[in-house]
Amino acid sequence: MDKARSTGALRWGSLLLLFVLACAALLVVSRRAAIDPAAAPAKSSFTPELVARGARLAAIGDCAGCHSSAAPLAGGVAMHTSFGIIYSTNITPDTATGIGAWTEAAFARAMREGVARDGSHLYPAFPYEHFTRLTDADIHALYAWLMTRDAVSARAPANRLIFPLGFRPLLAGWKLLFLERTPPSVNASQDAAYQRGAYLADALGHCGACHTPRNRLGAEERRHYLEGGEADGWHATALNAASPSPQPWSEEQLAAYLRTGMAPNHAIAGGPMQLVVQNLAAAGDDDIHALAVYIHAMQSEAKPPAAASERRAQQPLASVAGSDAQWEAGRQVYAQTCARCHDAGREPGSAGALQMPLAIANYLPDARNLIHIIRDGIHPPDNTPGRWMPAFGSTLTNAQLTALAAFLRHNAADAAPWPDLADAIKKTSSP
Ligand code: HEC
Ligand code: HEC
Ligand code: HEC
């Protein structure tokens, strides 16, 4: 007995020793030096052209989208991850609470290596997984833009992360495994607009942060670049050859969608994509065009069921009898609540909306986007004109939602039933 206990203790002791050694090693390799604070550069030291270029780039990088809550760029936006809540920080030129004392070298290190001025590691909720591939010229323009914004004094609330992830040195290990400087592969024979689009989509626009699936440690699976991922409880559609879109996307349609959130024959940008589009409004036309060229090329191998979905769109869905009780129940909900705007014969615009066989939400691997749209409706961002759909979260029961979603999946998309529909209904229930 005694012997067994002491070998057990020995084993625990050596494990503990190994753990302590590993932690010490990690601390040694992970330590980064602080970069001395410096006086904020005079706003007049940056040319107006450079600042304007930085503003257009920041629109593509969505800096304001993630860093603005109470005041522009002053941080405090809560990011919900599977590891807990991380707050974005103040990136205005305030010296005490923002990045006013950061030299351009400190800023560049944060963008490329995810290390703050004081040497601590930053969480990849800040998409430096992508910004690491920014050019020097773009970092310079972004710095000029940030340093010429209004300084705001504000400190982000403390993060709430599961143990032991609040311990920042652990991030050094994560970076060793996942931070990658080489860009995703591109087609070298394509033209300059494509190359620019590939760079913008990856390095600055970080489209993959939502549109690429992630592994269990929260890193993007680069082998599945843009093959569909997650964003705030929404499915972020595949943008490459795996696109499930019922209609092909032309370059012009993609440019219109990225510019306005709307394109003929395609669904409106919803959920997190609506915010992306809102921020892209300040991007340059040439860069929007480049993104469209690149995404269009990524999809050239996609095979949308265009003709079949168009044929279904021309028939009134509401009159297609369901073949069992649940579909029939779903058909009735559709006929009473949705058909007046979405059925065949109505066109998007003042009097109607897209036919359901053309709506990508019915074709996705799960039902969450469709249920989000039905529950919450569609509202144009504050103070902007746009298409509007009422919310049905408080008028439809879960049973009606389930029947409606099953009906649309079958009759609008002509696809196999969603296996986890009940789960999607649960996960999307309004707060
Ligand atoms: C998807 C959300 C997101 C986007 C987009 C984003 N950031 Fe951030 N950023 C964060 C979060 C979250 C942090 C805090 C990370 C931490 O505390 O470890 C952060 C931290 C930073 C920091 C470090 C600040 C400090 O005090 O340590 C800088 C600099 C920064 N971001 C600049 C930018 C710029 C410039 C852009 C646009 C090109 C941008 N960010 C876009 C989420 C984002
Ligand atoms: C008062 C009119 C109206 C009603 C009723 C309505 N919608 Fe919509 N819906 C819209 C508008 C407007 C849009 C925005 C895009 C557009 O014009 O197609 C939209 C968008 C959508 C989208 C995204 C695809 C797209 O068209 O952009 C889906 C999916 C959708 N609605 C499903 C439904 C379902 C299911 C119902 C019934 C529960 C419903 N809608 C009821 C007006 C309506
Ligand atoms: C914050 C997360 C997020 C980021 C970043 C993001 N997207 Fe999206 N995107 C989404 C989601 C979610 C959808 C699905 C929206 C819907 O169904 O209404 C979407 C939809 C789209 C669609 C429509 C796809 C289709 O076939 O209907 C396109 C095109 C698109 N995104 C392009 C981009 C590009 C290009 C970028 C980078 C510049 C980007 N997205 C960045 C979340 C994001």
UniProtKB/TrEMBL annotation:
SUPFAM superfamilies: Cytochrome c (SSF46626). Its cofactor is heme c. Residues 49-150, 192-299, 325-412 form the Cytochrome c domain. Binds 3 heme c groups covalently per subunit. Heme c 2 binds at C207, C210, H211. Transmembrane segments: none annotated. Gene3D superfamilies: Cytochrome c-like domain. It comes from the Bacteria. It is found in: Cell membrane. One of its GO terms (molecular function) is electron transfer activity. Heme c 3 binds at C338, C341, H342. Keywords: Cell membrane, Heme, Iron, Membrane, Metal-binding, Repeat, Signal. One of its GO terms (cellular component) is plasma membrane. Its main location: membrane. It holds the Pfam family Cytochrom_C. The keyword Transferase does not apply. Heme c 1 binds at C63, C66, H67. This is Cytochrome c. It comes from Noviherbaspirillum pedocola. The lineage of its organism: Bacteria, Pseudomonadati, Pseudomonadota, Betaproteobacteria, Burkholderiales.
